[in-house]
Amino acid sequence: MGATQVAVATALAAAKMNRPVKLRMKLATxxxxxxxxxxxxxxxxxxxxxxxxxxxxxxxxxxxxxxxxADAFGSLEVAVDNCYNIPAWSAKGFxxxxxxxxxxxxxxxxxxxxxxxxxxxxxxxxEAAGLDxxxxxxxxxYKGGETTPYGVDLTYCTIPRVMDELMKKSDFDxxxxxxxxxxxxxRWRKKGVALTPVKYGIGWTGANYGAKVDIVxxxxxxxxxxxxxxxxxxINTKVAQVVAxxxxxxxxxxxxxxxxxxxxxxxxxxxxxxSGLNSAAALEAAKRLRTRLDVxxxxxxxxxxxxxxxxxxxxxxxxxxxxxxxEMYWNAPLTKGMFAYNSYCAAVSEVELDxxxxxxxxNKVHIVFDCGTSLNPEVDAGQVTGxxxxxxxxxxxxxxxxxxxxxxxxxxxxWEYKPPQACDIPVDFKVDFLDNxxxxxxxxxxxxxxxxxxxxxxxxxxxxxxxIKAARQExxxxxxxxLEAPAxxxxxxxxxxxxxxxLKLR
Length: 506
Fold this sequence. Notes:
This protein is 34% helix and 19% strand. It has helices at residues 2-17, 27-33, 111-129, 133-140, 159-170, 172-185, 235-247, 274-297, 307-320, 377-396, 458-474, 489-496; strands at 40-48, 54-66, 89-97, 189-202, 209-215, 222-226, 254-256, 326-331, 341-354, 360-370, 428-433. The strands form three sheets. A four-stranded mixed β-sheet has the order 4-9-10-11, with helices on both faces. It has a four-stranded mixed β-sheet with strand order 7-6-5-8, covered by helices on one side. Strands 1-2-3 form a three-stranded mixed β-sheet, covered by helices on one side. It has twelve helices and eleven strands.
């Protein structure tokens, strides 16, 4: 909502002064005026039997909405199960009004906290039953053909394949065995290893995007206008690629015009669907143009053999003959059921913890992602790694504090608020896409790649918790302990804090 406030202020000033206005705010002002990602509190009971089968969940989710409730639940209610087939559910959500600024949707709204909450419950249940959390995950994992508590049929469920491939490629069992040996040999440094799977539903109902493709007859150059916003996620690259493929023209001749209101009435670019649906709109417009051009190409008396020369010749002939070289397509898809499809991914993380300071290093992260048939593997890999590191900050360092009397945020600058920095990026960071997967409902078989991998960063949090557990056990402290997210240095150190009599040189 902060963008709206800035836009209204600048528009008002521009109207009053009759001249262009640019507003630059101080970082502190920016942080203070805008709401943040919704904080959540979970109260729960979870059932598990001696075989590790999860039998039921009774959970209450409390959402701090701020002084106004908006975007409060996101997709929480359709993500509470994550990847697990649990037969009995009672899940209730509550919005809590506070004196803070209105919080708002942020990357993977609803999904991220719901998945984190489910993983928290599973870890606790496994610990209470004396079982390996990973074994409990595998025991309860969804399989193809099963149905979620909210009625979504998992026809194309690839999470078992994702998990199998990840465990092999990351050498998961060896990592855990080596961490155990390391922990036995080191008093003040501990390692933790964790694996987090993710099922992420992608819905299209209510989405509206359009695209217009214009061809210049003289030189064959192509201009694309679409209703999405390029913000680093590679939407322009993907749109240009699908149009080049459909038109059979060199991509070097394609220009994607800056975002404007030339194609109005689109929804916001978000939910990881902007790239796919704008590409779908541009693809349909390009196909219609190509059908028109094929007729003209077949009439050429001596078509050039060079592909680019042929393209220009066809465009010249079309323009000379009075053919329309512009096409616009409006894409307003309807999802049959809750989601059009699910994205599946999983991550293994290894962290190394300094027991005395509470600081940690993420040594290794390996992610396997079912991206369907990726439109651009480099762009999608960037989305995977970027989303992961963003969520890593959410769960380990980005603590928000407020003035209890006024509701004002006090972590309003880089001295107090700590997003991930260069040294927080995993030292060994690998991403693999699942092979031989085609999404029949995606653009050219692709899947959304922005928000699903974001949620796998919970593996860093739980790996850190396992390292803390190893440190506590060495001091003779057993039993369940609560680690609040974000797992800041101070919180981790307080849970590891050895008593004074333990601080002796051997």
